[in-house]
Amino acid sequence: MNAETAPVPTPGKGLKIAMILVRSLMGLLFVFASVTYLFKLFTPPPLTGAMKVFNDGIEASRYLMPTVKVIELLCGLAFLSGRFVPLAAVLIAPIIVNILLVHVFLGPEGLPLAVFLVLANGFLAYFHRDRYQPLFRA
Description:
Helix 1 packs antiparallel against helix 3, helix 3 crosses helix 4 (about 85-105) and helix 4 (about 85-105) runs antiparallel to helix 5. The radius of gyration is 18 Å and the shape is elongated. The protein has one domain (about 15-40, about 50-130). With about 140 residues, the chain is mainly alpha-helical. About 70% of the residues lie in helices and about 0% in strands.
């Protein structure tokens, strides 16, 4: 088959492949982060300064981080399986916003990953925008 007769991929197909890649990366990231936290697989590095104070406050609540990590695990599994992706993108959005704000104000070393999560979740929301339209009807 030469270049003139080869089928040209449609933009929709490329967008779908990008969506699968993005949601898979997000899924792997959230599953890894939640499993390592929930099963205490790694000892986290010691925190200092404002990040330590913030983390100590969250850990003092005793319920917040396990709840967040369970939501991350469920959303990560949804992203990896490809099922309930629009719901998972909505559920994970407030967690991603908090990840971004923590890294903007307290720990800029994690900012690139936080920006990736914001852009990736925005891309997933854009890809599934037709699923969200009923939410915006009066």
